[in-house]
Design a protein that fits this description.
- The complex is a heterodimer.
- Chain A is of the alpha+beta class.
- In chain A, the strands form four sheets. In chain A, strands 2, 3, 9, 10 and 11 form a five-stranded antiparallel beta sheet that branches. A four-stranded antiparallel beta sheet of chain A has the order 6-7-5-8, with helices on one face.
- In chain A, strand 6 and strand 7 form a beta hairpin.
- In chain A, helix 11 packs parallel to helix 19 and helix 14 runs antiparallel to helix 15.
- The radius of gyration of chain A is 40 Å and the shape is extended.
- By secondary structure, chain B is an all-alpha fold.
- Chain B is elongated and about 60 Å long.
- Classes of the chains: A alpha+beta, B mainly alpha.
């Protein structure tokens, strides 16, 4: 139990069997392949045998096909989003495929993927062209719209042998002045205001070529902004009509293109399967870069759980002819990846341990020790039997619906926490803030919070003492018996002595115990210091750590505070709802208020209870013994999203 | 003015302060997290759930404030009974009982909001580390819980 025993594994086999060996390893998923390039190979006998990226080409081809499949899937997802229900997402429903079928299916999927990719790529380009065309037309439409009243065909806006015509805009305020100046300088010039728009006058100007310099100078002086429509035939209104038609055409072409994409939707499942297949193949190729090789053989290095080793050896021996497997225990200070192994009732609580981090390879798995405390604390933070029933029911329904994954672990925790809440709610709380089944069995924590506070502190002292006991055991197991007595034993003496002062008639024993503990700490806590004076002073200073114990115990007061918070808010909701009774509409509002209020209280306090119960483990409990810094075990395995591979190698 | 003030008015001032200040703190704290979360969700809409969880954390101070306000009103008979005759001395005690959660709630909710906002940034890059982001924010909450406890103990001691 706890942290699994790991073995270092070396595997040697002939090159010819490499693919087969890798396929078996991937399907079994029990071996973490060490990265030979990542670590300093210098000084190792096989340093120059490490081969780099030996299947680069195959890898690149796989990556390219992966990119194609991802493009197709992303494209379909963008225009036709696939909705996955929450339940399906939690359940990870997958298509089951036999590993032999997989490779025969893969050829077919490859063909489908290539066709879909080609079709979608074409549609994508078409859509892009249409988008550009639409943008162009829209811009032109904006430019032309103000000129709709101009009845001169646009192709005639140009210079002839004797006259020149121009279109453009002028500030509306200056139009009168422009007219006057033009009339004075070039009487033959004709200026017509076609439209006015946001303080700009849109004008049509016609003048004799001989007057060109004068006219242009005047226009320029008044910020004339020339507009050209070089490629257009017919009047502005004719052109606008044509643009509308073209826009409509582009729109229908877009619809047609998207309909073409919709035809490919039926292949979405196959594309998802193919994505998984390619990912698996790529993973296999990537592992190859972690191999070392000689002329005809290859060497693979990795970590495996000791319990999985015989199975792996047997299966490899049965399937391959040249495989040689060597395994050894980790060396004295060698770090190995960590797997948490626990009995089924504790296993779901791995979830809480892993949230904090992975324990160190030579530390202790705290899961079984924290699980009972967690459940009790959760119940005390809720302290409402009615809410407990709902949480437990949610857990049961969740377990029925969710079959795999971390969400299932959470449901187990819900079930256990819910039952604990019912228990403590019955003991010291109520049912939805009401004494539905008479007074609480033990006492009402709302009536006597001080009593509840004492129980919270007692629970805290129990957990802290338990944590110290674990540390004592750990040190003894490591052969550091003196350390265990000095660093844990003396603290026990001091704290128990101080606690006994509260008990009547124990003063004498309490005093001698506390003094013995304190004396022991002063004498031993400075033992790492070089000089006698330093030893004494660091010993004396170590007594200051008593504040750490004190604040840790006080921290458990949150059990009372959160329990009271649940109860008082439930009470507040009931009181407010009670004020509404006595009127027909009042009853309706009352029911809504009760439902909404209790749902809110339940959610906010379940969240609070969960995180505060976790915190008491992480900060107050772990502080006494926990050794972190571990690295989680990441086996080389089948990583799929849509298919589940039924392997002839996998354990049933 | 002073003569017409009764112990009951003082108690109500205490209830109002608890709800007011702790509520303001929670509103600011939740706002801070919401701003950061909205930024993260523009990049990745799937992060709505976890960021919402972090955003809810600085909300508890407001609830604690409401809780104390409610308890003060209940114990002075303002809710579910007839308002009691309360001496000035008792009125001061009721007022004081509201202060721990009022002030600690105000400041801790804002501080917790900042910690949770940084937690949102943490899960933006490493979604698997949600647990750690929550724990950082909950470290702040401890002091709001302690203040709540003191408020309750003063109130029940009257």
């Amino acid at each position: 139990m706890g942290i699994a025993k790991m073995n270092k594994l070396y595997l040697v086999a002939h090159q010819a069997e490499k693919d087969k060996v890798l396929a078996i390893l991937q399907q079994l998923g029990v071996l973490e392949v060490s990265d030979l390039q990542a670590k300093d190979a210098e000084g190792q006998a096989w340093a120059e045998m490490v081969e780099e990226d030996q299947e680069q080409e195959a890898l690149q081809s796989l990556e390219a096909r992966l990119a194609d499949v991802r493009f197709s899937l992303d494209f379909l997802q963008r225009y036709y989003p696939a909705k996955k229900s929450l339940l399906a997402a939690l359940n990870d429903s997958k298509m089951v495929v036999n590993s032999v079928q997989l490779s025969s299916n893969a050829a077919e999927w490859d063909k489908i993927s290539a066709n879909v990719y080609a079709a979608l790529r074409k549609i994508d380009e078409k859509l892009m062209l249409l988008r550009n065309e639409e943008t162009r037309l829209q811009n032109l439409k904006v430019q032309l719209t103000p000129w709709v009243k101009l009845d001169v065909p646009l192709e005639e806006i140009k210079a002839t042998a004797v006259v020149r015509t121009e279109l453009g805009s002028l500030p509306a305020a200056e139009l009168g002045q422009v007219r006057e100046e033009l009339a004075a300088a070039a009487p033959a010039c004709y200026l017509q205001e076609v439209n006015s728009d946001r303080g700009e006058s849109l004008v049509f100007v016609l003048y004799h070529l001989a007057d060109a310099d004068d006219v242009l100078a005047i226009l320029k002086q008044h910020n004339f902004n020339r507009q050209n429509f070089p490629q257009l035939q017919g009047t502005a209104s004719e052109n606008l009509k044509r643009i509308e038609q073209e826009l409509a055409k582009a729109g229908s072409e877009r619809t047609a293109a998207l309909a073409g994409a919709a035809e490919q939707l039926k292949y979405r499942d196959q594309l998802n399967y193919f994505l998984d297949y390619l990912t698996l193949e790529r993973d296999k190729k990537q592992v190859v870069s972690n191999l070392a090789r000689t002329g005809n053989a290859f060497i693979l290095e990795g970590w495996i759980c000791q319990s999985d080793l015989p199975g792996l050896k047997k299966k490899l021996a049965a399937a391959c002819e040249t495989v040689e497997v060597l395994a050894r225990e980790p060396e004295e200070n060698e770090a190995f990846p960590v797997v948490l192994e626990n009995k089924p009732i504790f296993a779901p609580f791995d979830f809480i341990t892993k949230l904090y981090g992975t324990p160190g390879p030579r530390g202790l798995d705290p899961t079984p020790m924290l699980a009972p405390f967690f459940i009790v604390f959760f119940g005390l933070c809720m302290t409402d039997a009615g809410y407990g029933v709902i949480i437990a029911l949610l857990g049961i329904v969740g377990l029925k619906l969710i079959k795999t994954g971390p969400a299932r672990n959470l449901m187990w925790i819900f079930l256990a926490g819910g039952l604990s809440t019912v228990f403590f709610g019955w003991l010291v709380g109520g049912w939805f803030g009401l004494p539905l089944f008479g007074a609480p069995l033990f006492f009402d924590s709302l009536e006597d919070p001080m009593r509840m506070l004492v129980y919270a502190f007692v629970l805290g002292i129990i957990q802290i003492f338990f944590g110290m006991a674990i540390q004592f055991y750990r040190l003894v197991r490591q052969g550091k018996i003196l350390d265990a007595i000095f660093d844990v034993g003396f603290w026990y003496l001091l704290i128990i002595g101080l606690l006994l002062f509260i008990a009547p008639g124990m003063g004498g024993i309490a005093q001698s115990m506390a003094l013995a503990g304190a004396g022991g700490l002063i004498l031993t806590q400075g033992r790492a210091q070089p000089t006698l004076i330093k030893k004494f002073f660091s010993g004396l200073l170590s007594l200051y750590n008593i504040t750490g114990y004190l604040s840790d115990v006080l921290s458990y007061s949150r059990l009372l505070a959160l329990g009271l918070a649940t109860a008082v808010i439930a009470l507040a909701i009931n009181t407010m709802a009670g004020l509404l009774a006595g009127h027909p509409i009042g009853y309706v509002v009352m029911v809504i208020l009760l439902l909404a209020g209790h749902t809110f209280n339940l959610i906010i306090n379940t969240l609070g209870s969960y995180i505060h119960s976790s915190r008491l483990q992480y900060i107050e409990f772990y502080n006494r013994f926990y050794e972190g810094g571990g690295r989680a075990f990441v086996p080389f395995r089948l990583k799929t999203r849509s298919i589940q591979i039924q392997s002839e190698w996998q354990n049933k | 003015m002073i003569e017409s003030m009764t112990g009951l008015s003082l108690a109500i001032v205490g209830a109002a302060l608890a709800v007011l200040l702790a509520g303001i703190g929670s509103a600011i704290g939740i706002g801070i997290v919401g701003q950061t979360a909205a930024g993260v969700v523009t990049e990745d809409p799937d992060k709505f759930g976890p960021t919402l969880l972090l955003q809810a954390l600085p909300g508890t101070q407001g609830i604690y404030g409401l809780l104390i306000g409610f308890l003060i009103l209940q114990r002075t008979g303002m809710i579910g009974g007839t308002p009691m005759e309360i001496s000035m001395a008792e009125g001061w005690l009721f007022l004081l009982s509201g202060l721990p959660i009022a002030f600690v709630g105000l400041m801790s909710a804002i501080a917790q909001g900042k910690a949770a906002a940084s937690g949102v940034l943490l899960i933006a890059k490493r979604p698997e580390e949600l647990g750690k982001a929550i724990i950082y924010a909950v470290m702040v909450e401890t002091y709001a819980v302690l203040a709540l406890l003191m408020s309750i103990m003063i109130l029940f001691g009257i």
